[in-house]
Specification:
The complex is a heterodimer.
Chain A (H helix, E strand, L loop, with lengths): L2 E3 L4 E5 L4 E3 L2 E3 L4 E8 L6 E6 L5 E4 L2 E4 L9 E3 L8 E9 L7 E2 L3 E6 L1
Parallel strand pairs in A: 2-12
Antiparallel strand pairs in A: 1-4, 3-9, 5-6, 5-10, 7-8, 8-9, 10-11, 10-12
Chain B lengths: L3 E4 L2 E4 L5 E7 L5 E7 L5 E9 L2 E4 L7 E3 L5 E6 L8 E8 L8 E2 L3 E5 L1
Parallel strand pairs in B: 2-11
Antiparallel strand pairs in B: 1-3, 3-8, 4-5, 4-9, 5-6, 7-8, 9-10, 9-11
């Protein structure tokens, strides 16, 4: 079946440093990849999405590129802010037609002053 | 404005009691989902539906039932609430092949005593 792997459970950084949160996936169908951000006591919100191979997508200073050759969709930011502290989820839907999304377990990003 | 709303926003229930969580969406989306989130952890899919009057089991359906009487409404029912079902419950809607592009409700915080 489909799967999404986020290798880091917790990432702790100092403000102003770059960050990369890893996301890899497995599917035999055409993939659609998403990143969600969830701040404390809030609902998850869509941050980025892509289904186009090797095309960078950007939003709110975050960016990611879908690489089908390596089945990856890593989330990056060049300079993290205190407000970026949140839980980040990678998610997958496919052309397989089962309507059941696959979410990664999430990565908690903590940014220190 | 398109939205997903949930009621109640918080609830305290007694062990063995019946709990019904309601979700309403105005996104005109075909698919609706119920997730559970335990503190600091990821989203786990309980039940989902891709058409009215039909529901599907997700990854953790035991102890939960779901009902989709219309495209707009999706309920989660705990017939016999247990302590282990204390969590935050999110409803979401999605559509098309991008069904993992989901719009989440604000969540319901359920405490079972």
């Amino acid at each position: 079946g489909d799967s999404v792997t986020q290798t880091e459970g917790l990432v702790t950084l100092t403000k102003g440093l770059p960050v990369m949160l890893n996301c890899t996936y497995q599917t035999t169908y055409s993939p659609f990849l998403f990143w969600y951000v969830q701040h404390l006591n809030e609902a998850p919100k869509l941050l980025l999405k892509s289904s186009t191979d090797n095309k960078r997508t950007e939003h709110q200073g975050f960016y990611a590129t879908l690489h089908k050759s390596s089945s990856s969709f890593h989330l990056q930011k060049s300079s993290v802010q205190l407000s970026d502290s949140a839980l980040y989820f990678c998610a997958l839907s496919t052309s397989g037609g089962n309507y059941k999304p696959t979410f990664g377990k999430g990565t908690s990003l903590v940014v220190h002053p | 404005e398109a939205a997903v709303t949930q009621s109640p926003r918080s609830k305290v229930a007694v062990t063995g009691g019946k709990v019904t969580l309601s979700c309403h969406q105005t996104n005109n989306h075909d698919y609706m989902y119920w997730y559970r989130q335990d503190t600091g952890h990821g989203l786990r899919l309980i039940h989902y539906s891709y058409v009215a009057d039909s529901t599907e089991k997700g990854d953790i359906p035991d102890g939960y039932k779901a009902s989709r009487p219309s495209q707009e409404n999706f309920s989660l029912i705990l017939e016999l609430a247990s302590l282990s079902q204390t969590a935050v419950y999110f409803c979401a809607s999605g559509t098309g092949v991008n069904y993992a592009e989901q719009f989440f409700g604000p969540g319901t915080r359920l405490t079972v005593l």
